[in-house]
Design brief:
heterodimer; A: mainly alpha; Four Helix Bundle (Hemerythrin (Met), subunit A); 72% helix; B: mainly alpha; 10 helices; transmembrane helix (chain B); NADH-quinone oxidoreductase subunit H (chain B)
Chain lengths: 175, 273
């Protein structure tokens, strides 16, 4: 078989894994399994990006999503205050509204993908897509990026500080 | 043969044989699927890191974004070690898993910014290009802070002292507490393999790749990686285990700004040097 066919097969296999693992998030009955099913789904999406020739984006999606899911598992279990391995629990609530919203969103996005007249490709991809991506996000938009980063960090820190009455790092040795 | 050397050679063989023959122990209501994924995942993780390393002039997998892939792979240790603690459905393992994430937050950010320094200096994310760019001066010489942060990260991801609280003796082994038989063997082998893989990736990043007199390039990579792995294990095992709740503050307040300064110096050298 030709390499192109293998790449096509891998692309579709990863797409199927991404969708099935995403569905498993709602099917399993444990916080840890739901979290890591979502991580698997994102990793499959990262591999799809690799197969589209976006080496950097694919690697970064895998990196960020595995890290995020590892932290999210901690928060989910912490706020639930329970041990789902001992106490299986449903990962869904508000069935009807959720299914309605899901089907509606799928139809809307699917219709958009099918009905929108897609533009023809103009020009060719940059030989170094990673450098082109860096140039596109950081070149002319450097000021935006530099401004957004501290705002995002401040939001995270403020959110944690506001939700925490007294942290474990607050050892009482500071005024 | 002196006793110390003989036992050093025999203990791994005897321990492997013991664990292979050991009857597996199970805990009540263990999440076997996640537990097995975690215990068998560390070793493949180290292998995936090793294929990125250029042996002399070429790597098994030559990746234009090898540095990012190494970073993505070492983040998988977050997931696997936590799942190792979670899967057993037992207190010590779970506490160990949470300890690992607390330490990981501390070592990972300095590690990420440490990886940026060689990439900026070589103007590439390709480990082969980074190794080739050090023909004049090894990066470890003028990026010592980045190298130290990197080494700390390698000790962290392989759960070794001083960042081994997740598997601490005060927790009866923490994430390792309930492991037995082949699962335990795979995890312990995976920890050593991660240490070696981290040391091997440091060779193209900081230690000049395959550069060296007389011997062929691939042999220099093996020698440097072996020496660094040995040094990390030796230095680490002489340090006390750090309390997980006390690591984040110095790691982010002291080490992270130092590594950022290092990146700034490297960027300034690249632009004006």
């Amino acid at each position: 078989m030709s390499p192109d066919l293998w790449a096509d097969l891998a692309f579709w296999a990863c797409g199927v894994v991404a969708v099935l693992a995403g569905a498993a998030v709602f099917y399993v009955d444990s916080m840890a399994r739901a979290t890591y099913a979502l991580a698997l789904s994102f990793v499959a999406v990262g591999v799809v990006l690799l197969l589209l020739g976006q080496a950097y984006l694919g690697a970064v999606v895998v990196l960020m999503m595995v890290m995020e899911m590892a932290v999210m598992a901690v928060y989910m279990v912490m706020f639930m205050g329970m041990n789902p391995a001992l106490m299986p629990m449903s990962m869904v609530h508000s069935h009807r509204a959720a299914i309605g919203a899901g089907v509606g969103a799928f139809l809307l996005l699917g219709a958009g993908a099918l009905l929108v007249p897609w533009p023809e490709r103009r020009g060719a991809p940059d030989p170094d897509v990673t450098a082109a991506l860096g140039e596109a996000t950081m070149g002319s938009h450097m000021l935006v990026m530099v401004a957004i980063s501290p705002v995002m960090v401040a939001t995270i820190v403020a959110g944690v500080v506001l939700s925490l009455h007294r942290g474990r790092y607050d050892r009482g040795d500071r005024p | 043969m002196p006793d110390r050397i003989r036992s050093a050679l025999l203990v791994p063989v005897a321990e492997t044989a013991r664990l292979l023959r050991q009857r597996p122990r199970r805990t009540v209501e263990a999440d076997l699927l996640l537990w097995r994924i975690a215990s068998s995942g560390l070793l493949p993780l180290a292998v995936l890191m090793l294929v990125l390393v250029p042996w002399g002039d070429r790597a098994l997998v030559s990746d234009p974004v090898g540095v990012v892939w190494f970073n993505a792979l070492d983040v998988f240790a977050w997931a696997l070690v936590w799942l190792l603690g979670w899967g057993a459905n037992a207190v010590y393992g779970l506490v160990g898993g949470y300890r690992f994430l607390a330490l990981a937050l501390g070592y990972e950010l300095p590690l990420m910014f440490a990886l940026i320094a060689p990439a900026v200096a070589a103007e590439s994310l390709d480990l082969g290009v980074i190794a080739a760019a050090q023909s004049g001066l090894w990066y470890v010489v003028w990026m010592p802070v980045a190298f130290l942060a990197y080494c700390l990260g390698v000790l962290g991801m392989s759960v070794r002292a001083p960042l081994d609280a997740a598997a601490g003796a005060d927790l009866a082994g923490g994430v390792l507490a309930e492991l037995s038989g082949v699962d335990r063997l795979l995890v312990q082998a995976g920890r050593y393999a991660l240490l070696v893989a981290g040391a091997a990736v440091a060779v193209p990043l900081f230690l000049g790749g395959g550069a060296g007199p007389l011997l062929p390039g691939w042999l220099w990579v093996v020698l440097k990686a072996g020496a660094l792995a040995w040094a990390l294990a030796a230095v680490g095992s002489r340090l006390p285990t750090l309390r997980p709740d006390r690591v984040l503050q110095p790691a982010w307040v002291v080490l992270l700004p130092l590594v950022l300064l290092q990146d700034l110096v490297v960027a300034a050298v690249v632009v004006w040097g």
